[in-house]
Design goal:
There is one protein chain. The protein is about 70% helix and about 0% strand. It is mostly helical and about 280 residues long. The longest helix has 28 residues, at about 150-180.
Length: about 280
C-alpha cells in the first residue's frame, strides 16, 4: 500500500490536474477564434453597461454617499476585477448542481486527481476575461483621475486587495458549490452572493443600510474585498464604524473564507451519493 501524499504533493498534483483540464478547454475554445473574440468582447461590453449606469447617475449629482465618480469607479474596478478573476478560475463550479443531478460527478471522483481541481477547471472559458479587461480599464481611469500619492504600504495594500479579493470570491464560489451537494437547485442562491455581492461592492458602503454593511463585514466578509482597503487607499473616513485595523485585515478574511470553503467542500464531497443512473 502506497504512503499517503504530503500536503505539498497533493497541492502540486491538484494544480497540475487543474492546468491540464483548463488547457484542454482553452484549446477547444480557441479552435473557433472568431466566436471566441466575439464572445469575449461581448462580455466586456455587457459588463461596461453597469458602469455606464453609474456614470449617468453622476450627471445629476457630484457625489454618491460622499464619494466622487473616480472613487466609485475605483470600487467598481476592484470589485469587477476580483470577481472576474475568481469567475475565470473557478466560475464553472456554479453549475455543480446540474452535474449532481445527472450523476456526472461520478466520472470525476473515479479519476486519480482532486475533484475540486477537475470541477473548477471544467469548461474553463477564457472569454470570461472580458470582464477582467473591462474592469482594469475602469480601474486605470479612476487611478489616473484620483492621482493617489503612492507609497510602499499603499502599493502593498493594493496588491493584497486584488489577491485577497479574488480568494474571497473564489471561496464563495467553492462554498456555494459545496452547498449544491445538499441542495442541487441552489445555483441562484450562490449567484446572489457572488454576482450580487460584486454589484453591491461597486457602490459606497454609505449608501446601504447599516445592518447590510455589518453583514458584509461580520457575516460573509465581502467588505474586505474592496470597501475597507479603499478607505485607506483613498483616505476616506470610515462610514462603517469598525476598528481601524480592519482596513488591513483582508488577508485574515481571505484565510478564514478559504478555510471555511475547504471544510464545506470536504463535507459536500463526503455526503455525495450517486444518482445510480
Amino acid at each position: 500500500m502506497s504512503a499517503p501524499l504530503s500536503p505539498y504533493r497533493r497541492t502540486r498534483e491538484a494544480l497540475r490536474a487543474y492546468r491540464l483540464v483548463a488547457g484542454m478547454w482553452l484549446r477547444a475554445s480557441l479552435a473557433y477564434r472568431a466566436s471566441f473574440w466575439i464572445t469575449t468582447i461581448g462580455n466586456g461590453v455587457t459588463s461596461l453597461l453597469d458602469f455606464v449606469v453609474i456614470a449617468v447617475m453622476f450627471r445629476h449629482t457630484t457625489t454618491l454617499g460622499g464619494w466622487t465618480l473616480p472613487q466609485v469607479a475605483f470600487l467598481y474596478g476592484t470589485s469587477g476585477l476580483t470577481l472576474g478573476l475568481a469567475d475565470l478560475l473557478v466560475g464553472s463550479l456554479d453549475q455543480l448542481g446540474q452535474r449532481v443531478r445527472d450523476g456526472s460527478v461520478d466520472t470525476v471522483l473515479v479519476r486519480p486527481a482532486a475533484a475540486l481541481a477537475q470541477l473548477g477547471a471544467d469548461r474553463f472559458a477564457l472569454r470570461r476575461a472580458g470582464r477582467v479587461v473591462q474592469s482594469l480599464l475602469v480601474l486605470g481611469w479612476s487611478l489616473a483621475e484620483l492621482r493617489l500619492d503612492w507609497t510602499v504600504p499603499k502599493l502593498l495594500v493594493m496588491a493584497v486587495l486584488v489577491l485577497c479579493g479574488t480568494v474571497i470570491f473564489g471561496s464563495v464560489f467553492v462554498a456555494g458549490a459545496a452547498f449544491q451537494f445538499f441542495a442541487t437547485d441552489a445555483a441562484e442562491v450562490q449567484n446572489s452572493v457572488t454576482y450580487g455581492g460584486a454589484t453591491m461592492l461597486q457602490y459606497p458602503p454609505s449608501v446601504f443600510a447599516r445592518d447590510l454593511v455589518r453583514g458584509a463585514v461580520y457575516g460573509i466578509p465581502l467588505a474586505f474585498v474592496n470597501w475597507l482597503p479603499a478607505l485607506y487607499l483613498l483616505g476616506l473616513p470610515d462610514p462603517i464604524g469598525v476598528p481601524g485595523w480592519f482596513r488591513f485585515a483582508s488577508p485574515l478574511a481571505a484565510l478564514l473564507c478559504a478555510t471555511a470553503a475547504g471544510l464545506a467542500w470536504r463535507a459536500g464531497i463526503r455526503s455525495y451519493r450517486s444518482t445510480g443512473s
